Amino acid sequence: MIQSDKGADPPDKKDMKLSTATNPQNGLSQILRLVLQELSLFYGRDVNGVCLLYDLLHSPWLQALLKIYDCLQEFKEKKLVPATPHAQVLSYEVVELLRETPTSPEIQELRQMLQAPHFKALLSAHDTIAQKDFEPLLPPLPDNIPESEEAMRIVCLVKNQQPLGATIKRHEMTGDILVARIIHGGLAERSGLLYAGDKLVEVNGVSVEGLDPEQVIHILAMSRGTIMFKVVPVSDPPVNSQQMVYVRAMTEYWPQEDPDIPCMDAGLPFQKGDILQIVDQNDALWWQARKISDPATCAGLVPSNHLLKRKQREFWWSQPYQPHTCLKSTLYEETFESDKEEFVGYGQKFFIAGFRRSMRLCRRKSHLSPLHASVCCTGSCYSAVGAPYEEVVRYQRRPSDKYRLIVLMGPSGVGVNELRRQLIEFNPSHFQSAVPHTTRTKKSYEMNGREYHYVSKETFENLIYSHRMLEYGEYKGHLYGTSVDAVQTVLVEGKICVMDLEPQDIQGVRTHELKPYVIFIKPSNMRCMKQSRKNAKVITDYYVDMKFKDEDLQEMENLAQRMETQFGQFFDHVIVNDSLHDACAQLLSAIQKAQEEPQWVPATWISSDTESQ
Ligand SMILES: Nc1ncnc2c1ncn2[C@@H]1O[C@H](COP(=O)(O)OP(=O)(O)OP(=O)(O)O)[C@@H](O)[C@H]1O
């Protein structure tokens, strides 16, 4: 026990011995208080810098700092001495006092008690303990530490169900076992005790010298509870100062199928369209990433952009030649020269542009035309060697911004047009289609700019070559298509433009100007489709009122699968069109979210946005 030596000082000396901190004359806090008082006199006047100085000296952090300083000063100046002499003096003085005092039975009893062996033993025990120093006793440093000796670090980690979150490798030249990388969010990283580059010397007391990394991993795998590493720390631990980057996976990746991955168990599998948070790009070949859908888990290894591109290219070259990968339905292959009603929207409550019966058909048929191939295949078809990751950012449309273009996509007959029509009928002042262009001549009952924009073939082709056509096709010798300007006209009016597209046209609309939100309309399973499409009619240009056959439904399902496999990375939302009522409700809600809630969009859309402001 230690205590302050207050009792030893005469009362008049006590004040002097008080710390400068508690002495009201000398304490720093007191000095500061006086300065503040002085300053407060000038505070109201316009003296240069006084207010700033006053505020600074008055700041709570400075006050707190001074308090700590004062406390430390006070503590420093208190003479803390062991209690031993004190206790001895006390017992001696009491005994002396008792001797001098006239004896009485009570004092006699007290004297006996104080002189009793157990009381003496108690005082002696107290003094012995008071003399003890309870600070930990460190062993003396050996005098003969060789200069070449490397500093070691002992690291103990308690292994639970999760992996350690570190990978090891053997140094090519020295054969040392090194920590290759520390996985973000893993046990090793959270401990803050192991770094990439640390040299393993022992694991659980077993020397790793001469062992293969696999043997070391085996030791680790067999260990339960606490694992003790003896490591030679890396001289310069790597610092991850990189910014977090978010990317959309434009391809899929399965670590189990990749023989090149440095550690298969540490790999992160992902699918097209997954949003990944890249947490570490220090390694040129292997990045560390997390799925944003699963942020709590520790990161995993993914190939870097450069490496994945290389892998894609190698895979692409290893595939047999395919002339074109555009998707094409076999549902409609014949042509039927009839003059039947052209607009599906005809005969309804009001006319809706952009619902020409053959619009989707002509686009599908035209994808093999030389004109389309010359424009489309240069860049708009997603090629196998396209960027494997697309950097994305969170985008929240401001109320003053134009609405995002809504793109519906799906296999023939799934209900893309039906849903689009229902949406526009539900609120025609809010949702609208763009008026398409055509090279055919205007009919007597039509109006330029209502059913179509009627233009010459030359004008139409110029629009295509200048990339102002979002989609187009040839049908019965005439060109049909939707231009960027037609979509912009709807958006500028403050309405939501809803259009349908073939998947191969998707790249053309993905611009910062339109910021499209792509909704994939998917068929449900065959059993449900048979039920829900019992009374539905296939819309073709060669049969009227043809019912869906099983083959049609099967074809639809197959095509939907191919679309998802090939273009799934572009889909922002997927709706299964089983019950039309439910699908409409889901569509409305998805569109509302797209316009009002933050969404992941390509980073280039936003940076070009800022530039244009
Ligand atoms: N959920 C549904 N339940 C029942 N019938 C539906 C449903 N969705 C669409 N249909 C019907 O299926 C038929 C085909 O729909 P729609 O014309 O919209 O297909 P599409 O995807 O636009 O394909 P295409 O462009 O080839 O015509 C229409 O008769 C439509 O009313």
Automatic annotation (TrEMBL):
GO biological process terms on file: intracellular protein localization
Family that this chain belongs to: Belongs to the MAGUK family.
Coiled-coil residue windows: 546-597
Name assigned to this protein: MAGUK p55 subfamily member 4
InterPro entries: GK/Ca_channel_bsu (IPR008145), Guanylate_kin-like_dom (IPR008144), Guanylate_kinase_CS (IPR020590), L27_C (IPR014775), L27_dom (IPR004172), L27_dom_sf (IPR036892), MAGUK (IPR050716), MPP4_SH3 (IPR035600)
Occurrences of domain SH3 (ranges): 242-312
Signal peptide: none
Keywords assigned by UniProt, alphabetized: Coiled coil, Cytoplasm, Repeat, SH3 domain
Alphabetized PANTHER family for the sequence: MEMBRANE-ASSOCIATED GUANYLATE KINASE MAGUK
Role summary: May play a role in retinal photoreceptors development.
Compositionally biased region (Basic and acidic residues): 1-17
Classification of source organism: Eukaryota, Metazoa, Chordata, Craniata, Vertebrata
